[in-house]
Design a protein that fits this description.
9-stranded mixed β-sheet; alpha+beta; 6-stranded antiparallel β-sheet; about 450 residues; 17 strands
Length: about 450
């Protein structure tokens, strides 16, 4: 099984998009960027190794898709760390239904598969009838060796910087139509974003973050003019706490320690009320309780920090002042660490064939121990910019541990990926480009 290695033997082609074969990219297991491509006719058959192009399969819409190359493609619905712990290239039972937008379509087949014998399951999997679809954003930028922050002496292949955002299919909806939390603990605009960096020698970095609406019961009336969108909290604290606890218990189960980064204003009436209620529920959460009186507060499973984004960035420094958030969360970021793995038994001078790559055993060097949950009002522009900074902090920490540094050119590429991610999220929720993309 390969690392970024999100490529698996389970192709399905709904719409085929062809572009020149990228042998170097595919050998590394990277996701090619999808831009300026031509759409081909419907195809229900897998492609053969002789075909002179790679394919990307799009499901539902341009932001619901699969990336594939011949008989291998990437499983986008699962974090790298989760996939490595599963120990297999593909496991239907491991798919996360929260990010699986076609779960209702394939659920009967999954139930049917569960009653089959092992060899029959293999036959069904080989038929390629089962596939998963996510909604969100996926893009990879190739980093030439001269600009790569991780230097490798035995290979001249480019590295890959990838960003994958997975939008939850629970409580999905556009702005004003989906706000807050539901009784099952799911929140509106919930997105898991993973930054990965893959170096051809086998090094793989991954860092996950999440965003989501303020997890209380609230709604907001639509309006075109500022000040018309009145915020209304619709349930009492007592009626909200059970759903609030469900939400964070699930996050704690999935990611470990959760640190909330609230970007709401400290002066706008509606946002002030939301923040006050949010803080109150955190204080009453079981995850926030210190069982051992001698235990430091840093050991609590749920913590919260407030960063008034608009107040901090309204000065002459503009949005550059958003970097002040670093001082607020530096200690927690270092405690959470990041995911890092390496591939054993691979010579850096070798070109990785698909067959050989499937035999490489990744070694987990470090695990991410917690997650930042960032929110503003819409979980779009403010949130995306702060998550860009957190992503940079995590990768800088990785480089510092290796006594390496990234160039300004690399960070420009990193920021470009995140800006594109913000645009996609804004277009999906607001039908507008991200206001802070530039």
């Amino acid at each position: 099984m390969t690392l970024i290695p999100r490529f698996m033997k389970r192709p399905i082609y709904i719409l085929e998009i062809a572009f020149p074969r990228m042998d170097t990219t595919m050998a590394m297991g990277l996701i090619p960027e999808i831009r300026n491509l031509s759409i081909h006719a419907w195809s229900s058959r897998g492609s053969s190794a002789a075909e002179p192009f790679t394919t990307a399969s799009i499901l539902i819409s341009p932001i619901v898709y699969r990336i594939g190359t011949n008989s291998h493609f990437c499983e986008l619905s699962v974090l790298i760390a989760g996939r490595l712990s599963e120990g297999s290239a593909f496991d239907v039972d491991s798919l996360d239904e929260e990010f699986l937008w076609n779960s209702y379509m394939i659920d009967p087949l999954i139930k049917f598969r569960s009653r089959l014998a092992v060899h029959e399951k293999g036959t069904l999997d080989a038929s390629h009838m089962l596939t998963s679809a996510i909604r969100g954003f996926v893009s990879t930028i190739l980093i030439p060796p001269s600009s790569s922050p991780v230097k490798a002496t035995r290979t001249n292949l480019p590295s890959g910087l990838t960003l994958i955002s997975r939008l939850s299919c629970r409580r999905a909806g556009t702005r004003f139509n989906a706000r807050g939390i539901d009784d099952d603990g799911y929140v509106a605009n919930s997105v898991e974003t993973e930054t990965t960096f893959y170096q051809p020698s086998g090094l793989c970095f991954s860092y996950a973050q999440i965003r989501g609406s303020v997890p209380v019961f609230w709604e907001q009336a639509p309006g075109l003019l500022p000040g018309q969108q009145k915020i209304q909290i619709t349930r009492s604290p007592e009626a909200t706490q059970p759903a609030f606890d469900k939400h964070f218990e699930q996050l704690s189960l999935n990611y470990g320690t959760v640190h909330i980064l609230n970007l709401l204003s400290e002066t706008k009436p509606g946002e002030v009320e939301l923040s006050a209620r949010y803080k109150s529920h955190v204080a009453h959460s079981p995850l926030n309780q210190i069982l051992d009186l001698e235990e430091a507060s840093d050991h609590r499973e749920l913590q919260m920090s407030h960063f008034d984004f608009h107040a901090e960035t309204k000065g002459p420094g503009g949005y550059e002042a958003a970097s002040l958030v670093r001082r607020l969360i530096q200690d927690r970021a270092e405690a959470f660490a990041y995911f890092l793995s390496d591939e054993a038994g691979l010579s850096g001078s070798e070109t990785v064939s698909t067959e050989k790559a499937s035999q490489i055993l990744p070694t987990v060097v470090l695990q991410q121990e917690g997650v930042f949950r960032t929110n503003c009002l819409d979980c779009l522009d403010r949130t995306n910019l702060i998550q860009t900074i957190i992503s940079q902090m995590a990768f800088e920490s990785c480089l510092n541990h290796r006594s390496e540094r990234a160039s300004a050119d690399f960070w420009m590429r990193h920021s470009s990926l995140w800006a594109d991610n913000g645009d996609v999220r804004s277009n999906s929720s607001l039908c507008l480009s991200g206001l802070l993309s530039n």
